[in-house]
Task: structure prediction
Amino acid sequence: MNEGRRKFLGICLGGAAASAAVAVGYPVYRYLAPLQKEKSAVKVVIPEQEVPVGGAKFFEYAGSTAVLVREHDGDLVALSAVCTHLGCIVQWEKEKQGFICPCHAGLYTAEGAVISGPPPKPLAKLPFVVANGIITVG
Amino acid sequence: MGLFKRLTDWIDFRIGVRRIVAKELTGYLLPANINAWYSMGSILLFIFAMQVMTGCLLLIYYVPDADKAFKSVTVIMNDVPFGWLIRMCHAVGSNMMVLVLLFHMLSVLFMGSYKRPRELNWLSGFILFNLVMATSLTGYLLPWSQLSFWATTVATNSVSSIPVIGQYLVEFLRGGKLVGPPTLGRFYALHVAVIPIAIASLVGAHLFLLKRTGVSTPPFGLKESANQWQGDDYRYEDHPGGIPFFPNYALQDAVSVALYLTFFLTVVFFDPYLFFTRESFIAADPFQTPAHIKPEWYFLANYQTLKIFSNEFIGLSVQGMAMTCLALLPFIDRGRERHPLKRPLFMTAAIGGILLWVGLSIWGHYS
Result:
């Protein structure tokens, strides 16, 4: 009889302790978790003249880094600037019209395709529209 | 269960953990007539741990820059999930720490536990009390609100009445002629590093002294309540036939902490702004002194004392003398008797002192 009561009380105590741990742990987890921004609000507006022919414009996008490139034929490309190897930010090489990742020398074309080095996949392409001289990414 | 036993065996065979438990917990005997007032220290340890944890969490979003501090606190309160809860726990907890500390000191006073050979326990506790007041004062400035700014201006200014060096001391405390960004920098360093480390170290010393002298016996329910220590040699006060710390008194500690949490969480959830005023929600403005700025409740008696005396130096000296008497109490009150009802002179002085403190605080609040 006593053993049964002891076990019951032990279970109650364990349950109370677990509830208390959740009551403390959940607010602390939410407090520490990165603040979420609404995805629909992520739009970046850049005037067309800020991206010259053969040049690149880096900017912050959705909490990360992105880049706009205008190739010599006038085509625009919007890419994530985060290297697909280990997450360093790629650098634009105007003379070679391509990207290099300074961390492990991964090379990409202006469209983000991998030329050589360790990157396992191309740079992610981002959606954009151009209207009235304004580029809207996102 | 088998895995748990094997794991404890594995640890025990290496560091003898069961022997420590037998000596320090189950075999650590406390007086049979011990009461709930002895658990105040455990509640204080719990509060201190809570303050350290919530303080560390606040450091993640708080920016100790005069231009950004108020905004960062606003972000914690309004934008960070449960930021309001963490901050309220920290702000209410600081007030509770002072309150429970006062109860702890009162229980030691009335049960005569400060008497020899426990003078060092009392002194270390008294210094801890002052450090807690100091950490509360320095933390008060950090939100950089009107209340923070002007309460700190008034508090630091009172030091200026010390002859000769007073004005220099004020500037040294503030890091400039007036409270400003340099004050925030030094109060921040004191609040998050220097004072907490000092408190943790002194708590360690306080517990060490408690372990060396042994827990005092409550003077209630005994035929002989006078202090038996002769002062001729070191003697550990043991309690043969007493109750074990674990599980018996640990359960009392847990009950006391649970009761404290009930009171604390009631304030946090139902009256979180109990210790805040309108000025707490306005950013500091060095060109706009608010009317009737008041310090925290535990500094109200000091505030009113300074107002009573036309000369600020006399006001400070009176407070200094009162605090010195309190610090040196075990050396002043050398009688052997510990039962409060058998110490009429002490009881008169103690109750008179408490009434005076409460009276000055109420006067300070409404003045």
